[in-house]
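testing teh design pipeline on a random one, pls ignore if ur not involved
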């Protein structure tokens, strides 16, 4: 779910600190009139709900989908199912920041391990549709005649990814979602959005999931969410990395677009749902201004799946549809996904093999909105709204009427701004333990040299660094970069990360300084921002004068900056700092990216 700014503020406040569910539930109730009218709905997927006296009714079904069970209730129900069926087994695969067991449920007919479909719910714990849909599907597989879904594949289901956030329930969390009554948080106990953490892998939950992905290597990875944005008729939407259009690994992306999308769309329509590819709004206040499609980095589940060559689906149910409708639609999608994975398992394995054998030569590091739409939806199924003057905001706000409308919707794409060519390898100092830990966690191959080695390398200078506001446990960094060629002797133990490997593109996304999800962009190297030991101006000024006299390139760049930046030109300190930063061997740390590139 892509959070609008005002909801991000609400959730940040709610998450600092994370409160326990029993405390949060004492908060006053959200006024019922806040949400627009719900559209009436019925569909054949309603037949999936069991009778009230059924011994295997799920907790959500028992309350008419008014509520969703707690972690303890979910675990107890699953343990009872495990005891009742040989097809179901429960494991733990990690622990949360607050020490709770992370649960995975395997549904399997046993014998030799089959390809796995991995489904996770509640990475944003308030968006919990996938949990209750998964409980219903597991019951029907284990006890109600749908065991044939396991003939060719195994299902591994993570009912609650962000457990700590899930247990901090409140009626005020996710106020735009129509049910369940109480919802968890978007963030974990450290205020980290786990669907922004796949690349930097700071949270224990993320580290556990990455390890599970490596262990299972699924043929399909499904991440269940609920959307934000504007009102519309569609109830179940889904997408892939870069909406498929901007994915790096084409074989798996083409399978998702060509096989997954049409198959689950047909199944959902048969169930009475209205599915579409996830329409990410350009401007929620002006829906007809377009829906956005763009590249994705490995911070997201879908982006990460693309970078590691695993077909990954983001399910985005529409927030304003009733919880019952959303859960049933999720059930239909998951069942259709299992059937398709069984049918196409060999095709998917071949697509993954093809992608992992590919060696992309470049990485897109920045992009901008395309000048013209890249496509149109001729009859987008929207909902009408009117405007009223809000005494709270002092501006005209939207009031959705519930009236179905259609209009022509532009699809807004992106154009490349900067692309980097991958080097032969990256060289990482052995003291960069945090970086090496993440490379090891992600399964990126590297080796240490046993003896010193002298090489001509690409060295990156960091210019105009600007520390950004805190985000997901980090202080991100924005900067400009200047590359220079240097001959250096690397000490024994320095780590060489080759780009010629199946995860070479992921290595580039993490190690290329310009990449938006690089370790540098996430603020992994604060030491390079510390100013070097100083010296008196009467010493530094002559050194800077000598540099200007002998280096035509530095002199030309300096003179251009004097003309372009009056504040710089009138600041003796800024001028001297700029010049001394360009002295040879000025500092091995200051504004120098510690990782070198072998070209």
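output:
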């Amino acid at each position: 779910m892509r959070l609008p700014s005002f909801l991000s503020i609400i959730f940040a406040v709610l998450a600092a600190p994370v409160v326990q569910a029993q405390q949060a539930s004492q908060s006053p109730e959200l006024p019922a009139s806040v949400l627009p009218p719900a559209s009436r709905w019925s569909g054949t997927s309603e037949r999936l709900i069991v009778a009230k006296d059924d011994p295997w009714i799920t907790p959500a079904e028992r309350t008419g989908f008014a509520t969703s069970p707690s972690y303890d209730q979910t675990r107890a129900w699953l343990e009872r199912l495990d005891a009742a069926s040989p097809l179901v087994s429960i494991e733990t695969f990690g622990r949360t920041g607050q020490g709770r067991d992370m649960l995975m449920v395997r549904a399997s007919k046993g014998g030799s391990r089959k390809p796995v479909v991995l489904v996770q719910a509640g990475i944003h714990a308030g968006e919990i549709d996938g949990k209750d849909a998964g409980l219903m599907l597991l019951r029907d597989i284990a006890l109600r005649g749908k065991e044939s879904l396991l003939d060719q594949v195994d299902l591994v289901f993570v009912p609650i990814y962000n457990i700590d956030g899930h247990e901090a329930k409140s009626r005020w969390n996710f106020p735009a979602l129509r049910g369940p009554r109480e919802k968890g948080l978007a963030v974990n106990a450290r205020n980290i959005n786990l669907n922004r953490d796949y690349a930097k892998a700071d949270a224990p939950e993320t580290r556990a999931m990455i390890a599970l992905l490596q262990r299972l290597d699924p043929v399909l990875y499904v991440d269940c969410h609920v959307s934000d944005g504007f009102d519309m008729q569609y109830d179940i939407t889904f997408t892939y990395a870069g909406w498929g259009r901007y994915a790096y690994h084409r074989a798996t992306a083409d399978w998702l677009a060509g096989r997954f999308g049409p198959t689950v769309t047909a199944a959902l329509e048969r169930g009475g749902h209205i599915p579409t590819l996830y329409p990410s709004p350009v401007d929620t206040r002006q829906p007809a201004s377009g829906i956005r499609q763009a590249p994705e980095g490995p911070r997201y589940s879908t982006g990460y799946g693309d970078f590691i060559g695993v077909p990954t689906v983001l399910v985005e149910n529409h927030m304003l549809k009733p919880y019952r409708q959303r859960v049933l639609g999720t059930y239909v999608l998951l069942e259709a996904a299992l059937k398709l994975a069984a049918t196409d398992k060999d095709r998917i394995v071949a697509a993954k093999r093809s992608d992992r054998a590919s060696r992309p030569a470049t990485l897109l590091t920045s992009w901008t909105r395309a000048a013209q739409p890249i496509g149109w939806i001729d009859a987008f199924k929207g909902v009408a709204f009117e405007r009223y003057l809000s005494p709270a905001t002092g501006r005209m706000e939207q009031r959705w009427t519930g009236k179905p409308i259609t209009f022509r919707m532009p699809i807004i794409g992106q154009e490349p701004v900067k692309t980097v060519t991958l080097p032969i390898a990256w060289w990482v100092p052995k003291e960069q333990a945090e970086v090496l830990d993440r490379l090891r966690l992600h399964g990126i191959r590297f080796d240490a040299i046993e003896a010193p080695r002298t090489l001509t390398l690409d060295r990156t200078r960091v210019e105009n660094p600007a520390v950004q506001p805190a985000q997901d446990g980090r202080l991100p960094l924005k900067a400009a970069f200047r590359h220079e060629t240097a001959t250096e002797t690397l000490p024994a133990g320095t780590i060489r990360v080759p780009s010629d490997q199946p995860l070479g593109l992921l290595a580039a996304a993490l190690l290329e300084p310009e990449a938006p999800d690089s370790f540098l962009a996430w603020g992994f190297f604060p030491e390079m921002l510390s100013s070097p030991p100083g010296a008196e101006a009467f010493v530094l000024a002559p050194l800077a004068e000598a540099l200007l006299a002998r280096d035509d390139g530095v002199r030309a760049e300096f003179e251009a900056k004097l003309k372009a930046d009056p504040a710089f030109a009138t600041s003796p300190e800024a001028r001297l700092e700029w010049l001394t930063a360009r002295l040879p061997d000025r500092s091995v740390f200051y504004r120098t990216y510690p990782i070198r590139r072998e070209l």
